[in-house]
Design a protein that fits this description.
Layout lengths: L1 H32 E5 L13 E6 L31 E5 L7 E8 L4 E5 L2 E4 L2 E2 L2 E7 L11 E7 L5 E5 L13 E2 L4 E5 L16 E2 L3 E11 L12 H4 L7 E2 L2
Length: 247
């Protein structure tokens, strides 16, 4: 009987070690390499939709205190830093309240002059080419009841992406010229009329606040379906978005 008990205890201990090792590995992966995020708002439509679940590459830009769980104040600035590129879709900490994660597209690099005039983005005095690219209609709370015009923009880096312009004369369609300070970035949402970004309260984003580059949509649920509502998955899963690269 004692021998059987010893074997049971040994087996239990082995299981505990496997579980602990798996949790540590998951923590390392989440902290160092990739972190999952959920898209909570429509500010990046049509690129990212409410209900998209994405992986963010944390290695892409190096690490700051915001790369670590609970954001411990262990060091300042970034280590193993790499410069983000214009056009990247970036997760960052909201400068006025770093406890909040935001996701936007990087439009302006340090030293750039950024302005929006009549819905056209100008970078260093040059207009970003923009052409009509059909229409978009959301399948969730952001459904306006009508199609929204889509415009494809192409940056000087060659990165092309779709944007929405529902109201051509909205507050964000004509702005002052913003000069991006050293060590900061200018972010904009692809849903230009419905995005709190660097044109407004977000302001310039310090390099330290960057969390990582959005890289992959690994899961997506439409119609405001909660992840917990498994019985609704078959009808509301966006199959065409599964394992889709974020561009």
């Amino acid at each position: 009987m004692a021998q059987a008990t010893d074997k049971q205890q040994s087996g239990l201990w082995e299981n505990i070690k496997v579980i602990v090792q798996a949790l540590l590995l998951a923590l390392v992966i989440r902290t160092v390499f990739f972190q999952p995020f959920t898209i909570p708002s429509g500010s990046m439509m049509p690129t990212l939709l409410v209900g998209d679940y994405i992986f963010v590459n944390k290695f892409a830009y190096g690490y700051s205190k915001y790369s670590l769980p609970l954001s411990p104040d262990l060091f300042s600035g970034r280590i193993f830093a790499s410069e983000p590129k214009r056009g990247d879709v970036v997760v960052f900490r909201f400068p006025p309240n770093p406890d909040i994660d935001y996701i936007k597209r990087l439009i302006g690099l340090p030293g750039d002059r950024v302005q929006v005039r009549d819905s056209i983005v100008y970078i260093n005095g040059n207009p970003v080419p923009r052409q009509g690219d059909g229409a978009f209609r959301a399948d969730d709370q952001y459904d306006t009841g009508a199609d929204v015009p889509v415009f494809k923009e192409t940056l000087d880096t060659g990165v092309a992406f779709d944007t929405l312009d529902q109201f051509p004369n909205s507050r964000g369609d004509n702005t002052q010229e913003f000069v991006v300070p050293a060590g900061h970035y200018f972010m904009m949402g692809d849903n230009r009329d419905n995005s709190a970004d660097s044109r407004f309260d977000v302001g310039f984003v310090p390099a330290e606040n960057l969390v990582g580059r959005a890289s992959l949509i690994f899961f997506s649920l439409g119609n405001d379906t909660s992840f917990k509502e498994i019985w609704k998955w078959p009808a509301n899963l966006r199959y065409d978005r599964l394992f889709k690269a974020v561009e």
